[in-house]
Each structure stands twice: as C-alpha cells, then as structure tokens.
C-alpha cells in the first residue's frame, strides 16, 4: 500500500541510517506502510543538518545508549502520555521550567519550512494523514533524531516543543484490537515477526553496554525504535551491538480497548524494509550470542549480539482519536 514516507530504546537503526547516508530526499511519498540520570542539557533550537559526503565519513560512533529502565519518566507522562492537541494547551514558553506546548505547525517548521508541509490531509487516523506523518518523520531532516533524543534524555523542553509530532506518530501506531484486519479497521496491520537492529558504541564501552543486556532481564526502550526486517539484513545499519528482535504478540487477541503496536514501513528509495516500534515497548533478553570478531572496510572489531523478545506493548491511558 502506498504510504508517505522514521530508535531501539537507545539509539535507533534509523539514526544509524541518517548518520551513514545523510542525503535529504525532497519528496513526500517514498515509504509504504505494509498492509494487512543526568540533568538533560538545554534544548538546541537549530535542527540537525546533514553535512559533507557520507562516502568520506569514518564510521559514526553513536552515543545514545542509556542504562536500561523499566519505568516511564514523569516528563514523558506530562508531555507525551497525557498530552492531546485537542486540550486547551497554553503556548510554549521556555524555562526553566518550560511550560505549554508548541502547535503542530510551530513544531515542524524548523525541519519542514516549505508551506506544503503545513498542509495535513484528512482527519487524525485517516490513511492520507498517516501517509503524510510517515513522510515527515522518515525524511533525513533531523526530526526523528531530535524526537528520540529528547525522549531518551528526558528533555522536557524538547518534549514540549515536539509533543504535537510525537502525538501524531503515536497515532499511526495506535490500533483497536477488535478491528485489526477487519473491514471497519485500519488499512494496515500490526507487525509480527523477526526484525534486526544495530547500535554503534565506542569500542572502549561496547562490552560494558552489552553486559547490561543479560539473559532474562526485562526493560523498555523509551523512544521510538527503528529496525530492519530480517530478510534485508542489517547492513548498512549494523553496529558492534546488534539485536535480533522477535515480536510474536498478536494485538487482535489483546483484551484492551486500544494498543500501540509496531508497523512495517517500506521505503521506495534505498529499498529498505523497516519496522517502527512505539515508545515504552517492553522487551526480554532471550539469549546472549557469542562475541564475533568481524572485519569490515579494513577495520576489525568485536560484535556483540543479543536476541530479544517483545513481551508487552504499551497501552494508551486515554481514548484515541482514530475514527475508522
């Protein structure tokens, strides 16, 4: 199905994508949604911009890995879980402490300044609107990077600036179990199957971070998590800490009114097949694979792999806005 054009609770494969291939694609419909701790630093208002040529870049070291957690932060509750654009929200004011929220237009303007991006087709939950939201999130403008960094860093200033877009993306992942794969339901279905994710960790720290993912441990990744479908492999999104993720939860069998579930997104440019998991998805470490010594581009290093299984999908605290 045609869709408009996306982090594992630490750093996402999507972030690895843009780090290694930083070309901005100025188009709308390049993705298909597959059918059926420390005090955070102040918010940087200038969006991330791609620079230089990726072919001349050394391997990018990503520093977004955070200690494992099993709880939702208070800032996330205030700015994401309890936020709705339909509430009488005050205008955003910088802090400290920050208050209010930006509206959707103000939220996306630093990343999509062209007026055409300010036009949103359909109502919330419609196929056309979901298509547009996917396009805006997945393009290499730095939007997805800033959204997930703010969530992981628990940066309330940034969350209040980006709350409208975070809300829209979560709506793309919201399903009513009784309507999954039904005529009155959505035009896509939740993802089930195996997917892959790679993180790039500084060589001196990778063993320390890999040790956090001990067999049997349970945790949530607080931000949106991007993965690759198994059939496409991880390259070029592989890192030195890789994950094989099994998602076997069937949302249609859950006894809840609504649930946030992963969806599969196919990009027409680059041919990658991605899976986007909602924030606060809960995982369990099933297996710690043996460390492999891998040589790539004349560089030899240790690569750690963990097998994860999804054990719980996040459930909305408030009724959704989808009208299917």
Keywords:
single chain; 324 residues; alpha+beta; Toxin ADP-ribosyltransferase, Chain A, domain 1; ten-stranded mixed β-sheet; two-stranded antiparallel sheet; 12 strands; disordered N terminus; NAD(P)(+)--arginine ADP-ribosyltransferase
Short description:
This is NAD(P)(+)--arginine ADP-ribosyltransferase. By secondary structure, the chain is an alpha+beta fold.
Question: In the CATH hierarchy, what is the class?
Answer: Alpha Beta
Taking pLDDT < 50 over at least 5 consecutive residues as the criterion, the unreliable ranges are: 1-30, 36-60
Described by the principal axes of the CA atoms, the overall outline is globular
Computed CA radius of gyration, to the nearest angstrom? 19 Å
The CATH superfamily title = Toxin ADP-ribosyltransferase, Chain A, domain 1
User: How would you spell out the order of helices and strands?
Assistant: HEHHHHHEEHEEEEEEEEE
User: Can you tell me the CATH architecture?
Assistant: Alpha-Beta Complex
Number of domains: 1
**Helical element count?**
7
Within the CATH hierarchy, at the fold level, what is the topology? Toxin ADP-ribosyltransferase, Chain A, domain 1
**Structural class designation:** alpha+beta
How far is the first residue's CA from the last residue's CA? 17 Å
- Overall mean pLDDT score? 79
In helices, the fraction of residues equals 10-25%
The tally of strands reads 12
Biggest sheet descriptor = 10 strands, mixed
